[in-house]
Amino acid sequence: MAAGTEVISPRRGAFGSVLAVLILLLIGILAFSIRLFSVIKYESVIHEFDPYFNYRVTQFLTKSGIYEFWNWFDDRTWYPLGRVIGGTVYPGLTLTAGTMWWIANALNIPLSVETVCVFTAPVFSAYAAWATYFLTKEIKGTGAGLTAAALIAMVPSYISRSVAGSYDNEAVAIFALILTFYLYVKTLNTGSLFYATLNALAYFYMVCSWGGYTFIINLIPMHVLLCIMTGRFSSRLYIAYAPLVILGTILAALVPVVGFNAVMTSEHFASFLVFVILHVTALVHYIKRILTPKTYRMALTMVLTIGTVGALTLVAILVALVAASPTKGWSGRSLSLLDPTYASKYIPIIASVSEHQPPTWPSYFMDINILAFLVPAGIIACFSPLSDSSSFAVLYMVTSVYFSGVMVRLMLVLAPAACILAGIALSEAFGTLTYSIKYQQIPTLSNEPVSEEKTTALKSAIDSSFKSVVPKDSIKEKTKVEGDEKVKEPVKEKTSKRIRKKEKEIAEKHVEKQVERKPLVLPLEASAVGIVLLILLGSFYVIHCVWAAAEAYSAPSIVLSSQMSDGSVHVFDDFREAYAWLRHNTDENDKVASWWDYGYQTTAMANRTVIVDNNTWNNTHIATVGMAMSSPEKEAWEIYQSLDVKYVFVIFGGLVGYPSDDINKFLWMVRIGGGVFPHIREPDYLRDNQYRIDSMATPTMLNSLMYRLSYYRFAEATMDGNGYDRVRRTEIGKKHFKLAYFEEVFTTQHWMVRIYKLKPSKNRQRGKNKRKTKAVSKKITRKPIKSLKNPWSS
What we know:
The chain has 35 helices and 15 strands. The chain has a five-stranded mixed sheet, with helices on both faces. A two-stranded antiparallel ribbon has the order 1-2. A two-stranded antiparallel ribbon has the order 3-4.
């Protein structure tokens, strides 16, 4: 504030602290309650696809215990390969929810595992808001912290991943991300080894929770390198970074899914390189302090020579290790972030996921709304004055903007940075405007010269503060003769005295400038209008966030709804209807095939073995399913028979207008299948480079299994009998056909899920033999009649 010299009474400070705690409590309640629309409008149910796997794993953990969880081999997924769950999953979310369930049961609170999983995300959204407050407070003060916490409690980008029922890794990972950044900044400001240790533990929790931990282990080294390059190296910077690299890497290697990747993959090399640079910089500063300038120049030359040779050797080793890897040591998802075209060229399984697509400009307005316009003001505020913590906030914002522009899913990482900088901007704006209104009543105050007593008091305060921080072991005593008495007074060592004197002069100059600077006072009318406009801006933000939480992000993908012309709501519950049919009408050991999107739901809700699921760890297995869906009926039947599949289901939205069906995803099946099996070619399914399902569709498309399973008996189900597809908005090409190798066993009420059973091979073989036998018998009976002669004729 401009009135930086105003003294705050202890009573006023205590009242401000109590008020801040009360506001934080209300913000936590707001963050929790705004995410309950999905439960109020629908029911307490798990959302999306991945959360069903996490729910199933949590059920196993609470039932069997932690040791069984680490050694669990799941034979109901990726048949016939299976999956080792304990070594392929990030356990943070599961262990967190399991711990919450155990605590609730220990307190005799009867909560089911599903209830705990549904409400885990809203609970941790409140924790994330509080962590944002502490992080922003370390950067720009309490006011900015409270504003940022209120913004992130409602920001739609975060709500989309943390509504009740969204039991995914991001539910706890965003809290872990913000907590890690807060403890890093706190250590940077205080130089406390205690906070540095807590920072490493928070990073460990982040590694357990989400694969996005690589963002942290690259962002913090970038900030450390920035501080070194701009001449801001200090012991606090060393304490903030060195323990994080050592302890954090050791702890990260303990997570089974990470293991030695913490030291062997390219995503982590930047942290080790900056770790070396930090120690070289610390060594240079130490040598410079203890040597004379001439000796220092000689030592610097020697250190630079040895350091250059060592650096070149290290770089050569790293280059050799990286060159030995086909992907240069980077994972496919990391390469797709660095090169947005990489996934579409080489890994279609990643490019096929909708949340891995680049966002559009309206997505930014939808997900962060007015924060996009406040962020530039927050960046400017961070530069006045620029500190280590504020530079970290700016760097966090810049990097998150880039990554969110590559992948729409990473809008989630952008949200905290946008809320922090927008909170700083709003706090600074409100501070200036309210200060102007407050001091309009005393017009002489802004022009009143500062008295010498006030300036002297400030300088004496600086003196006392510097005396309080001087360590006792750096003070010696000397005897001074005053008259007849000998007085002992403390004298510091020369190096300490020189440093202290220099810092004191800098501080006094800063105080003099602060005292002489006139506070910024705007006209009363402009200040009042500005405050009203900011309140209106905040009101529009609240309205947008509540609408997004209630309408856009509260609907679970497994239960759909639409509003009728009379205002009533019609619910489409086809997914659960289909999974319930599979659970009750198929054998427990039957294998079910579908596209990988529905693998987690099938295993969790139908309790049946699936061929592929959402883990997507085996591209060849997924490509095999894609090849089956792209092949003619007979070839597809043979592929599924080789995988011991008994049931196949497809998602179809042509009757009710559901756009996320398998026909719209079919080209991705073709691309993924063609990436492994070259005889599957995408141009064979296109007519003039257009994807069509009407009469102009190619024969390959019309004869594919996906087309036949989706549109079987479809013309009969439409009102006009012409087979009009409401999603593609056209009549289908092939209307009336029969299935020879599959039989329809169940179709849901709205035709959204269609389940087929493979016809057994021996029944069809018996029919073939029967036809062959009849043909042969006819031949045999006809030939003797023509060739035989009457023996009694002469």
